[in-house]
Amino acid sequence: MSALPVPADAALPAAPPRRRPVIVLVLFLLLALLPVAVSVGLPAHWLTLTTRALIFAIAALSLDLILGVGGLVSFGHAAFIGIGAYVTGIMITEGRGEALLILPAILLLCAIFAAITGAVSLRTRGVAFIMITLAFGQMAFFLTQALSGYGGDDGLTLYERSTVAGYDLFGSRTRLYYAVLVALAGCYILVRTLVASRFGRVLRAARENATRVTVTGYDVGRIRLIAYVISGMIAGLSGFFLANQTEFVSPAFVSWQRSGELIFMVVLGGVGSLHGAIIGALVFLFAEDVLSGWTEHWKVIFGPLIVLFVLFTRGGLVGLLGKLGVARRD
């Protein structure tokens, strides 16, 4: 008796139930109300700090797509932030500060860089993948140092910000904040939609058993490369906003330490939880700000705290909130 054919989707995990994560709605509502709170007495520093945290939340969200969903630990993700920041800085310096020109250039260059480096890196797995992504990240770091015409080691100071269709959208801290918040919300919806689709189910299944998924007819390498390219493009967007907020571009944006911080943010929030990446970035940046105000050696305190939190809290902050009945994973 011949065996019945097995549908390709049989190898895939069930699609996550369509539900509205209340924690995400509450989170974005609170973030939207922050400028109002600042206008009635909350320290203005909070608005600047939160803007920076949301910028890194975009990058952490992009990393969580390949790390939390795809199981790919990239230690060179800051290279995409650097591409976004340097393209922004160079184009503003050359008198082409229009965001409608800068953003397509960033997305294109990030896609090309991700496609080339991903095609090489994704031939490996585990520690080898980590080391190759680290090597590509360091290549980008040394390239930025070699840009002597645009600051080199000293970085590049920007004397103006990007415009949007000729409008000075980023000239106000409040307008910049809301622009970043809207971009983060758009990226969250995009990534969540991808994760809930068949594409995301294949990516998640490949993390568990790539051989089984390949046998069912899916091209795992192609799926992972597409995810890697999308992730890089989203991270490049965070570089655009980072350059506009700081009005300064530096090789430090591309360093391996920055890539490590992004991984910490994802782990702190909860690997595989998209809103966890946002929460992790917010907590990371605020904790960094508080501890650095206490002592210049704040990293000596912060490092062990993160290690202890990861060791004794399963699933990061989202896992902790889940135990308290406040949130569920994506």
Automatic annotation (TrEMBL):
InterPro entries: ABC_transp_permease (IPR001851), LivM-like (IPR043428). Keywords: Cell membrane, Membrane, Transmembrane, Transmembrane helix. One of its GO terms (cellular component) is plasma membrane. The keyword DNA damage does not apply. Its main location: membrane. The chain crosses the membrane at residues 22-42, 54-87, 99-120, 127-147, 176-195, 225-243, 263-286, 298-321. GO terms for molecular function: branched-chain amino acid transmembrane transporter activity. It is found in: Cell membrane. The keyword Magnesium does not apply. It is a multi-pass membrane protein. PANTHER family: ABC TRANSPORTER ATP-BINDING PROTEIN, HIGH-AFFINITY BRANCHED-CHAIN AMINO ACID TRANSPORT SYSTEM PERMEASE. This is Amino acid/amide ABC transporter membrane protein 2, HAAT family. It comes from Bosea lathyri.
